[in-house]
Specification:
The complex is a heterodimer of chains A (about 250) and B (about 280). Chain A is an all-alpha fold and about 250 residues long. Chain A has one domain. Chain A is built from eight helices and no strands. The longest helix of chain A is centred in the N-terminal third of the chain and has 40 residues. Chain B is α/β, with parallel strands linked by helices and about 280 residues long. Chain B has nine helices and twelve strands. A six-stranded mixed sheet of chain B has the order 6-7-8-3-11-12, with helices on both faces. The longest helix of chain B has 18 residues. Chain B is globular, with a radius of gyration of 18 Å. Classes of the chains: A mainly alpha (about 250), B alpha/beta (about 280). At the A-B interface, helix 4 of A face helix 2 and helix 3 of B.
């Protein structure tokens, strides 16, 4: 039994060690500003289209599906409220994070994994550069900055998607839609809508880097690390949101 | 009178990865200007010797000294300074995919916290970096590849660019990890020529890990002639000024250490596998 637990416990310990060093490096020199900007471009701008698309259609689908349920109670006028709460509190952060996990946790893990198996990480250390400072910290900062921004964009486009359905198919006026959508949002909705993507970003970046940097076994190992990075970061996204939801629901 | 400490010294160094023994009580030393050739089958621990020598891997027991300093328990950040006195050629060159050849070769000059940069510890100017990078690439015959990415070069060219990066800061010690592995004989010989040229022009100490007898044989018996710009066999009347010793490793242990003549006379069948001229 203890042997079975040994590997996961050691892995978690290694993950915490990497995370600690990555976070500590945020305030330590040297700072690789150009790497941070480059990663923001790769992760943020690179994900812009897919995040916009999914955000918009999740609003469309939400409005369409919920309109039927609301019609039962003659409350179709409240569709803006439903779309707004669902997107800002839950779907916006989670869907955006899952997309970025699929796109960037895998990208980070495969890039760092390839560098590991071709000894580029060792070369980096041998040439006086800390790979955590140069590779992990910039990805962590970049993801933590851009994921909340991407989430805001997805939320907004989702609301627009809902608005189009509401006005075109449900005979709701624009002002009614936007008033219900806006008024229902409370301070704690916005806090959790931004706190979640921030936490998801930390998980996505660190899990991607962690599996990338412990890759072994050549190109096959790179594939395995990539898969693990996506699966593990996705699972953690759901765990985190499940842990946070009760806290905010009771507020 | 103070004696110059060995460039590298291992004292009973052992290292395990789980159940696998990577190094088993390995002891040796390398003096300034000297060359050590490590032979051994795949997985015998040769590469681990190099990585342990510069602190990339920490031993489980034993002590490792680099330029007289005990680096065994030093933190990563504390080793950076001393590592800048060592050039390393990794097995596949270890070039950074995202940087072009000029940036790759200039990397040690820009990133290493180095007293040997200008002697005064100051930063090297951009012009000086560019000029030293060109000089180093010219040394390996790749001055036309400055703008190319590593993926645009052949395996042999990547290895040569790796040598250019390893020697660009003129380090007193260069470590070569299987520099000829996977290359055709012509390219492999060209690489060894470059290593001999580097050793003889700059009088560097070197550890060369290989499984090719020819590599060690050439290192021990050929030298660079700056007049003809070729390497030539050492004549008996003008023996090699530098010492070349051979080490054979098996399952993490050193099973032979000595000159080439001792290697050839060994009765150990494992050692003899590496001592047959023509074997590769």
């Amino acid at each position: 039994m203890l042997d079975l637990l040994k590997i996961p416990v050691e892995s978690f310990q290694d993950f915490l060690y990497l995370s600690g060093r990555a976070v500590r490096n945020i305030v330590r020199k040297p700072h690789y500003a150009s790497d941070i900007l480059f990663q923001m471009d790769v992760i943020g701008f690179g994900s812009l289209f897919i995040v916009s698309l999914i955000g918009f259609f999740s609003g469309v689908v939400m409005a369409l599906q919920m309109s039927r349920a609301l019609a039962t109670y003659g409350a179709q006028g409240q569709i803006g409220q439903i779309v707004s709460i669902t997107l800002v509190r839950e779907l916006g952060p989670v869907l955006t994070a899952l997309l970025v996990a699929g796109r960037n946790a895998s990208g980070i893990a495969s890039e760092l994994g390839s560098m590991k198996v071709t000894e580029q990480l060792d070369a980096m250390r041998a040439l006086g550069t800390d790979p955590i400072q140069k590779l992990v910290t910039p990805r962590l900062i970049a993801t933590a900055v851009v994921l909340p921004l991407l989430t805001i964009l997805a939320d907004f486009l989702g609301l627009i998607g809902g608005y189009l359905i509401a006005t075109a198919m449900l005979n709701i006026t624009a002002s009614q839609y936007w008033q219900t959508a806006w008024r229902v949002l409370e301070y704690n909705d916005l806090v959790q809508g931004l706190l979640k993507p921030f936490l998801f970003a930390i998980v996505i970046a660190l899990v991607g880097c962690f599996y990338g940097m412990r890759t072994s076994g050549g190109t096959q190992g790179v594939g395995l690390s990539t898969t693990k990075a996506v699966v593990v970061s996705s699972v953690w996204i759901f765990i985190i949101t499940s842990l946070l939801d009760p806290l905010f629901v009771n507020l | 009178m103070s004696e110059t400490p060995p460039v590298v010294r291992f004292e009973n160094v052992s290292l395990r990865f789980g159940e696998t023994v990577a190094l088993d009580r390995v002891s040796f030393s390398l003096d300034a200007g000297e060359t050590l050739i490590f032979f051994g089958a795949a997985g015998s621990g040769k590469t681990m010797v190099l990585k342990t020598a510069v602190g990339l891997v920490k031993p489980d027991s034993g002590r490792v000294f680099l330029f007289g300093q005990d680096i065994t328990d030093l933190k990563e950040s504390e080793i950076f300074g001393i590592r800048s006195k060592v050039g390393i050629l990794f097995q596949e060159g270890g070039l950074f995919d995202s940087l072009n050849i000029e940036e790759n070769v200039g990397y040690p000059l820009v990133n290493q916290p180095l007293a040997l940069r200008n002697g005064d510890g100051g930063d090297v100017s951009e012009q000086e970096v560019a000029s030293r990078v060109r000089e180093s690439l010219k040394f390996v015959g790749l001055e036309h590849t400055l703008e190319k990415l590593p993926s645009e070069l052949s395996g042999g060219m990547r290895r040569r660019a790796g040598i250019a990066r390893a020697v660009v800061a003129a380090p007193p010690l260069v470590l070569y990890d299987s520099p000829t592995a996977g290359l055709d004989p012509i390219t492999a010989n060209r690489i060894v020529h470059l290593i001999i040229k580097e050793r003889d022009l700059r009088n560097t100490a070197a550890i060369l890990v290989t499984h090719r007898y020819q590599d060690g044989h050439m290192m021990a018996n050929f030298r660079y002639n700056p007049n003809s710009e070729e390497i030539e066999m050492v004549r008996p009347e003008a023996p090699m000024p530098v010492s070349t010793r051979f080490v054979v490793m098996n399952e993490g242990r050193i099973v032979f250490e000595g000159p080439e003549s001792g290697l050839l006379q060994s009765v150990d069948p494992y050692v003899l596998k590496f001592a047959r001229p023509g074997a590769s």
